[in-house]
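User: Here's a chain of 291 residues. Predict its fold as tokens.
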Amino acid sequence: MEPAAEKRGPRLGLALGGGGVRGLAHLGVLAVLEEAGLPVHAIAGSSMGAIVGAAYALNPPGSLASLRQQVSELGAMLASRLRFVEEALPAFLQPVRQFIQAERFLLDNLSGWGVFPESLVVEPLQKLTLHKALEEGRLSLAVVAVDLISGERVIFRHGPAVPALQASAAVPGFFPPVAQGERLLADGAIVDVVPVDVVRDMGVEVVVAVDVDQETLRGTVRNGLDAFLRAFEICSRHHKRLRLALADLVLRPQFEKPLHMFDFAHTEACIRAGEEAARRALPTLRALLGT
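Assistant: Prediction complete.
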């Protein structure tokens, strides 16, 4: 007689959504899952979800505290580049500050690809991913981007992690797209803000989507830059709902206030929001996994 096959429970996959600073909530979700002893077998991410997922998969176990610090430092560096005028301006000068922000945004994009140069994020991403390839992770990993030429979704499963993450997080107007042959790759959230079907195809039985959008909170729209970001969010939201319907469980971290994607002054609050959302969902997740 052949030996009985080893029994195993359902494998868990995470779809980590984009959302700028709000995507740091994924670190909190991962921390709670580790604490609860619920192993993750696959991660698919877009934009900040891709960065957090890749950093988690490519670093050794027990690295979350270090990753938390590194990602916070990266956020602080990006935020400092967006402070075109001092935050402490008196109230009557705020319209001037907003005008300068919008003008700088326009000039950066007319003369180049955006506010942030490519070189700004390469070194931090190399540090976060230990210069590894995507297939070297301790769990299955997929990174989602979009080809601006064809409009097609591009899924990275192999090859150097840094170019894939640069492409996945290349928010138009802020980061330059990544040229790859005849393709021009940009932010994966444009076509798939929470890539549920991608992680479903990676051989897992239970898919948990982490949606860091703020559908119930509406930020003020004060200028063209705000309008651009808001339009991007609305477009992604309507497409995202179709993807989320394919998940077994959707986590929605609750943030204290409306946050723009580059509002990196609230990194710790975003991570805590992820922790709280994961803890609330633990009973449901344990039931899905049969643990």
